[in-house]
Amino acid sequence: MVSKNLVVQSKEGLDIRCAELLAQTAESCDSKIVILYRHNVVNAKSMLNILSAAIKAGDEIELRCTGPNEEADLEKMEEAVRRLRE
Q1: How many domains does the chain fold into?
Q2: Rounded to the nearest 10 degrees, how much is the dihedral formed by the CA atoms of 23, 27, 30, 35?
Q3: Domain that holds residue 62
Q4: Is the predicted pLDDT of residue 85 greater than 80, yes or no?
Q5: By three-state DSSP, how is residue 38 classified?
Q6: pLDDT tens digits, 61-75
Q7: CATH number at residue 11
Q8: What pLDDT digit, counting tens, does each position of 13-25 carry?
Q9: With left for phi above 0 and alpha for psi between -120 and 50, is residue 82 left, alpha or beta?
Q10: Which residues of 28-49 are buried (b: 16+ CB within 10 A; e: fewer)?
Q11: Which of 20, 54, 56, 68 is least surrounded, with the fewest CB atoms within 10 Å of its CB?
Q12: Strand 32-37 vs strand 40-43: parallel, antiparallel, or unpaired?
């Protein structure tokens, strides 16, 4: 298992567009990927689960990957979160 803490930079937080991008990215990964936010564990492969967490701009999240390609998958997810700023 590998993990990384990140701050959500998107002005809208994890809105529909952002949640869809993250879920699609997570779906392309072999690892189990979760987002830890406050006391919630969110399945990153589910757009609805990401939306239901109500993650806002400036909130800190933890990405956690477990699986055969966890290091590469964590890098891919980290890049997706960073692209949300654009």
Answers
A1: 1
A2: 10
A3: 2-83
A4: no
A5: coil
A6: 999 999 999 999 999
A7: 3.30.1340.10
A8: 999 999 999 999 9
A9: alpha
A10: ebebbbbbbbeeeebebbebeb
A11: 68
A12: antiparallel
